[in-house]
Design a protein that fits this description.
- By secondary structure, the chain is α+β, with helices and mostly antiparallel strands.
- The chain has 3 domains: 149 residues; 283 residues, 3-Layer(aba) Sandwich (Rossmann fold), CATH 3.40.50; 97 residues, no CATH class.
- 23% of the residues lie in helices and 22% in strands.
- Strands 3, 4, 6, 7, 8, 9, 10 and 12 form an 8-stranded antiparallel β-sheet that branches. An 8-stranded mixed β-sheet has the order 13-14-16-15-19-20-23-24, sandwiched between helices.
- Helix 8 crosses helix 9.
- The longest helix is centred in the middle third of the chain and has 17 residues.
- The protein is globular, with a radius of gyration of 25 Å.
- This is Esterase.
Length: 586
């Protein structure tokens, strides 16, 4: 699941006069219109577009001036307002209007916006046209190095936020004043190398050149031991800008302290930096295992990563990662290059990817450690049983409509409902193009629709579940079901390789699916799965099996936890007779 991201600015500029600002080229008028709602018209400036554009046009309103409105859209009660519409063939110099039919979040219509002073922004999330090999032509946002984030994607149009007094019956004319600049890629260092390769498999599917990347952390002594080949540690997770959790200098305590609301911890920024530095010291010290460690960049036109599996809508990402990217890394940096010598770990989305790749590619990976994985049993797709429930948003009742929760804290207090979370996504993009959590699950798991976009598991407006789509999900991506269905074949290949960890108060109720998967694993025989399932008492997302530290700390120690655990407990068990288990232990 997508939890934490830092967002770069996307800005709007407004003036309360009817004059044109020569620098910003932004126009605001306060003329009255015959309507019960405020009306917003957006002009596409000629100097910011040299051709017609496609995309998602988003209007953002906020009463909080502490940061830009584009940073303030969330699933919690603190969210501000957004309204979105699809744009096709938008001609430079022309205008588009938001009206009463434009969907909004959390308010459904502009007519519901209370009068008052707001910070206002507009943003155009650009789409490109893909002519896929399956015969479908689709319009989607291409990742541009930012990890598929609508509010920081280079090339998106935006304007600088300014205060407006919003009143019903008023017309406001808005215009963009800039584009988001390109992202500067990280540079190689002594320890971290960055690679990018063209994937032939993905390029064929998408009808254009498509790339995979990775950040490679070299072991201590790599350059001094040119004849040694190393095991490979693969951390799955959301799009990494660089190798995460790594810092070669002590924490900078001269920086102002930042309080973590989530963990209720002072100076959490200092804590994070110190943990990163501690990992550097451990990695370069005398006792840490000498292995290659990588984090993969595999953003898709639908999300910040592919879920590391083959998919009708995303293409053969599982094969591309397993048979193109990883062998290339092993060849470049002297990996052993055999399934037993690779292991995967990660949390949330990365947790699902780790166990899914292990199950779907059992011979190509030696062990997985999956923490707080996205739902691995769709009988508990968070709080929805997609096979038996008729509606995802409401509990079944003849007399009332009780909404299904979507997010809670460790005491069970609900911050948002499933319907609200999907409403936010629908504002950010139709046809699964929001770049958010529920949409990517559909993009990965669903069959392709007649229009070329993912079929809905449920109606985004009503929550009504489509049982035919659910059946497709079960046969292809319900990991617990697949293990149970295919255990006669998979069992001998998965014995000792499955390790699961989850807090029993996971914010997204992901522990429910782990309970069901554990029941299936404990019933296995010939062979018994011989792995591990563990739970953290009152632990939130994303607990990873460390009972000695609070979640605020353990979540920062994935590399330090799982790499030694793998080498000390599991690698020898999976290695074949005669395997090299000594040359890299210097």
């Amino acid at each position: 699941m997508k939890l934490l991201h830092s967002f770069l600015p996307i800005l709007l500029s407004f003036s309360l006069s009817a004059q044109v600002d020569s620098a910003a080229k932004t126009v605001i008028t306060g003329t009255e219109v015959d309507t019960e709602m405020p009306a917003f018209q957006v002009r596409l400036p000629n100097d910011l577009a040299d051709q017609a554009l496609d995309g998602r046009l988003i209007l953002l309103l906020s009463k909080d001036d502490s940061e830009e409105p584009r940073f303030q859209l969330s699933d919690g009660p603190e969210t501000q307002l957004a309204f979105g519409m699809d744009v096709e063939n938008w001609q430079p110099g022309s205008q588009l209007a938001f009206n009463s039919d434009t969907p909004g979040y959390p308010l459904k219509s502009l007519a519901e916006v209370p009068p008052g002073d707001y910070q206002v922004q507009i943003l155009l999330h650009k789409y490109e046209t893909f002519n896929r090999s399956d015969g479908h032509t689709v319009k989607l946002p291409m990742d541009r190095g930012e990890g598929q984030q609508w509010n920081k994607a280079p090339g998106n149009l935006l304007s600088t936020p300014q205060k407006l007094t919003i009143e019903s019956g008023q017309n406001y004319e808005l215009a963009f004043d800039r584009t988001i600049p390109a992202i500067v890629p990280p540079e190689d260092t002594e320890w971290i190398k960055h690679i990018k390769i063209k994937s032939e498999l993905l390029s064929e599917f998408w009808g254009r050149d498509m790339y995979l990347g990775a950040h490679v952390l070299l072991p201590q002594g790599w350059a001094e031991h040119p004849d040694v080949k190393y095991p490979l540690a693969i951390m799955h997770g959301h799009f990494p800008a660089d190798f995460g959790g790594w810092r070669t200098e002590p924490a900078d305590t001269t920086q102002p302290c930042e309080y973590s609301e989530r963990f209720q911890m002072d100076c959490y920024n200092h804590v994070v930096q110190q943990e990163e530095y501690d990992f550097y010291k451990a990695w370069t010290g005398p006792d840490f295992p000498r292995v290659l460690a990588i984090e993969i960049q595999h953003a898709t036109p639908y999300y910040d990563d592919s879920y590391a599996v083959n998919s009708e809508n995303l293409g053969p990402y599982g094969d591309a990662i397993t048979y193109e990217l990883i062998p290339y890394i092993e060849a470049q940096f002297r990996g052993i290059g055999e399934g037993w010598s690779r292991f995967m770990y990660g949390g949330s989305t990365g947790g699902w990817e780790a166990i899914a790749a292990q199950v779907l590619y059992p011979d190509d990976y030696g062990t997985c450690y999956a923490a707080c994985p996205d739902p691995i049993d769709f009988r508990a797709f968070c709080l929805t049983n997609i096979y038996e429930d008729k509606n995802a948003y409401y509990l079944e009742s003849d007399y009332k409509r009780t909404e299904v929760p979507g997010h809670r804290d460790y005491l069970g207090n609900v911050q948002s409902t499933l319907r609200e979370m999907n409403q936010r996504e629908l504002v950010l993009g139709t046809r699964g193009r929001s770049g958010q959590q529920w949409d990517i699950w559909e993009a990965v798991y669903s069959p392709v629709g007649d229009d070329g976009y993912p079929q809905r598991i449920w109606d985004k407006e009503t929550g009504e579940i489509n049982p035919e789509v659910a059946a497709h999900w079960r046969e292809n991506f319900d990991i617990a079901y697949i293990m149970k269905r295919d255990w006669a074949e998979l069992g001998p290949k998965l014995k000792g390789k499955i390790h699961l960890y989850c807090g029993d108060m996971d914010n997204y109720y992901l522990n429910n699916a782990v309970y069901l998967a554990e029941e299936i694993l404990e019933e296995t025989s010939q062979p018994y799965y011989d792995g591990e399932v563990d739970y953290g008492d009152r632990a939130e997302h994303c607990w990873n099996g460390d009972h000695t530290q609070p979640n605020a700390i353990s979540r920062l120690r994935y590399h330090r936890m799982f790499i030694p655990k793998w080498v000390e407990e599991d690698l020898v068990k999976q290695a074949p007779v005669g395997a090299d288990l000594s040359s890299w232990r210097y």
